[in-house]
Structure formats: C-alpha cells, structure tokens
Specification:
globular, alpha/beta
Length: about 230
C-alpha cells in the first residue's frame, strides 16, 4: 500500500493515538518524560505526543537526553526548542558488574531514565522503539527463553507509542516533517543478536507482516483474556 505524504502522516499518527488510547493512562493529568536523542524515532515521538496532547493542559511533556557519546545532542536541542519542551541532559551511568540486558532500552539507560523520571515526578516514560525494534526484542527473548519487556514497568509506566509502526514509516514521517537525523544502527551485544536482526529483517522482507505477527502474539501472551 502506497500513501501520499498527507495520508502517511495521518496513518502514522492514527496508530500512535490508538496505542495511547489503549493504555488507559491518560484519562487524567500526567507528566510524560520523553527519551529524546536527536534521531528520527525519538524526534517523531516527541512531535506526535506534542501534537496529540497540545490541547491538554493537564498533560505535561518533558524530555531528557541520555548521553551515550552520540553526536546528535544539537538535533535533540533543536527538536525540543521547536516543540517548546524542556530538555535535560544526563550522562549514561556505568554498568554494575554482572548486569546486562538483551532488550532495549539497556539496563544503564533504563536506570538513567528512571532516575530522571523520579526527580521530575514523571509517572510515564516514553521511548521511541518502532515495530522493527520491538519485534527483534521479542524474537531474541523467545530464542533465549525470556519474557520480553518483563522489567519495563519497574518504577512507573513505560510506553512505546511507535511500537506498531514499521521503521520505514517512522523514518519517512520524520523526514517529511524535517525531524531529527539519520543514524547508523547501533551495534548489538553479540553475534546472536546481530544474526537475529539480519535474519528477521530478511524474513519480514520476504513475508511482510512477520514483525506485526510477533508483536500480536506477544500481546496475546501478556493479555490472555483480553484484559490489560
């Protein structure tokens, strides 16, 4: 299916709004902390949340940059200023010995986000993983006998409004709106992760819908009777 620029934007925003509605978190006032790194995904996420909640005075948006040595801090500042969202800068804390994570966000980044959210009294943390990212996380968890995202709710509500949107659509949406910049995909922790990412990409290219099927199956496992 091919969409024009206008209808692509509408479709992407519709998917994000549907996700937010289904969380059931926004009936009352909320403070949301957005992880903003200057890339396409996080910039698109910040723009969508600002657009969706711009009439809600009881919804407060804030953003934080977790410094991983990346070079896109200026882009993050530019997006935050454009959307009139306050932006904080945090250094990535060192990893405690023996702690590692096969999922995204990493253990250290998760700790930094939790600390920033607690200090700013933000009950919701929003991160920019798209459908491709989440499908890989689920696929790796199945391969390793883990439960994907099992620690995600520790310390508050974690939301991923882009998780039903393919990476290519998020990128096009961001480029149309001149949001953020492209980046080299981050290297994964080991050979298994790299092979899984490559094979899942190839399989989804040959069999479109694979990533979405992984997501839907995971959601059914988490909500076996249709409840949240």
């Amino acid at each position: 299916m091919y969409l024009c620029r206008e209808h692509l934007q509408e479709d992407v925003q519709r998917k994000a709004r549907e996700y937010l509605r289904q969380t059931g978190l926004f009936a009352g006032g909320r403070r949301i902390l957005i992880e903003l790194d200057g890339g396409r995904n996080s910039s698109a996420l910040a723009y969508m949340l600002s657009n969706i909640f711009h009439r809600r005075r009881d919804i407060d948006l804030q953003a934080v940059v977790i410094d991983e040595g990346m070079s896109r801090f200026k882009e993050a500042v530019s997006v935050a200023e454009r959307l009139e969202i306050s932006l904080q800068h945090r250094k990535m804390p060192p990893a405690p010995e023996g702690k590692a994570s096969s999922t995204s966000p990493s253990f250290c980044k998760r700790e930094a986000l939790l600390s920033a959210a607690q200090e700013n009294d933000a009950g919701i943390i929003a991160t920019g993983e798209d459908l491709d990212d989440v499908a890989l996380e689920i696929f790796l968890a199945y391969l390793q006998g883990e439960c994907p995202g099992e620690a995600a709710e520790v310390g508050g509500h974690w939301i991923r409004p882009l998780q039903r949107i393919p990476k290519r659509e998020v990128r096009l949406y961001a480029k149309i709106l001149d949001l953020g910049s492209d980046c080299i995909p981050p290297s994964l922790p080991n050979q298994l992760h790299e092979q899984a990412r490559r094979q899942l990409f190839e399989f989804d290219s040959r069999h479109p819908g694979t990533n979405y099927s992984l997501l839907k199956g995971w959601e059914r496992l988490l909500t076996p009777k249709g409840g949240r």
